[in-house]
Amino acid sequence: MMKIMLAVLLAIMVMNMASLGQAIPDDQSPAAVEKWFRQFPYAVPKLTKLHFYLHNIVSESPPDSVPIAQAASTANSPTKFGLVTILDGPLANRPFSKNVIGYGQGLFTLSSQEESSTLITVNFVFTAGKYKGSTLSVLGRNVVFAPIREFPIIGGTGDFRLARGVGTCTTNYLNSTSGDDILDVNFVFYRYVLPGQEESDSENYEEE
């Protein structure tokens, strides 16, 4: 009798694990999202690393970013304090590559009167690769001319639901005349994987 009971319990556990694996983040319907959260106690945090290049080319048409607002005093500010710019810049595996794997979409506001520093609110939207359809959200401070900048990853959608981590970037390319620039971006963060889902821990978009 004990062996039968153990066999039944094992079968139930296997069935439950299988059902958990069916709730993939690609399904973003309200019912699927709710089911994902009900299964969240079984999720395992996975350290994930992404590497790509964010392009902000403003010398071409259409430009990747455009200013949309500024204060009356911005024109007289040495740091352009108060200038708000909207961004829709492609993400690629290499500088100037046409192999677009997503877009950085959001706002950056020159928010310091002492130095060139911006408040950034950007969603990184992935349109290719195994994380296609997922997003990561960043909210933080970017000191424009610092050698390395660090900012928090505060959340995400799809495969990156409840993601938490840190992004760093360096300037890979800057044309001070045209205003074009390319950032070398590295993300390190934890995402949550339900039992039965893939468990790969990184995607290096630098590889073709």
Mean pLDDT: 87
Order of helices and strands: HHEEEEEEEEEE
Radius of gyration: 21 Å
- How many distinct beta strands? 10
Note the main sheet.
Answer: 8 strands, antiparallel, barrel
- How would you describe the shape? elongated
Query: What portion of the residues fall into strands of 2 or more residues?
Result: 35-45%
Name the strands of the widest sheet in spatial order: 1-3-4-5-6-7-8-9
Distance between the termini: 57 Å
Low-confidence stretches: 1-24
Helix content: 10-25%
Structural class assignment = mainly beta
* Number of helical elements: 2
Protein name: Dirigent protein
Organism: Oldenlandia corymbosa var. corymbosa
Subcellular location: Secreted, Extracellular space, Apoplast
Signal peptide: 1-23
Q: Secondary structure elements and their pairing?
A:
Blueprint (H helix, E strand, L loop, with lengths): L1 H20 L8 H10 L4 E13 L8 E5 L14 E9 L7 E11 L6 E10 L8 E9 L5 E9 L6 E11 L6 E13 L8 E3 L4
Parallel strand pairs: 1-10
Antiparallel strand pairs: 1-3, 1-9, 2-3, 3-4, 4-5, 5-6, 6-7, 7-8, 8-9
Organism: Oldenlandia corymbosa var. corymbosa
Family: Belongs to the plant dirigent protein family.
Keywords: Apoplast, Secreted, Signal
Give a written overview of the molecule.
- This protein has 2 helices and 10 strands.
- The N terminus is likely disordered.
- Keywords: Apoplast, Secreted, Signal.
- InterPro entries: Allene_oxi_cyc_Dirigent, Dirigent.
- Belongs to the plant dirigent protein family.
Briefly summarize what is shown.
By secondary structure, the protein is mainly beta.
